[in-house]
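Intended use. Records such as the Cysteine hydrolase family protein entry shown here are meant for training and evaluating sequence-to-structure methods. They are not intended to support clinical decisions.
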Amino acid sequence: MQALLVIDVQNGIVEFDNFDEELTLIQNVIKDFKKKELPVIFIRHFDDAEESPLFRGSRGSELHESVKEYADCVIEKQTPSSFYKTDLAEKLKELGVDHLFITGFNTEFCCMFTAIAAYDRGYEVTFIENATGTVNNEESYEMPGLDIRDFLGTVLHWSEVIEVLDYDEYVEAYSTSE
């Protein structure tokens, strides 16, 4: 069975920049999974540092309004991996999931770590590249011209163990939408 992970779509991240395109694609994938009656699991990251935009209990730690209404199942985490010290693996086993689709934030941290951890646990993994986003950019990494999402998508694709698609390819391969 397939399941969708919606990782860290929280106010403290989404309000950092203009992520309208990413949010629209994430919503479209959520709606497709809901239409197919497949599990959609939200992941929320929390930090203990009060200055963090994802400090537990802060407005920043809440799910963003664009996706909040779809959140039937929410798993909390405190590391980049959605599996580490969470009950995600147990939830997926209970649901009979063997194929995970990855969307959310931040592409090069929580989305990537979760995709790799899922593969390591034996899941088939599909990473929907342009349905992920990041608050970081070429200046963050002091690498002029770096397209973080494209770079990470290429690395994961070259691994030949994680399927990397853009949204249009996802629609063509998996969606019930026209």
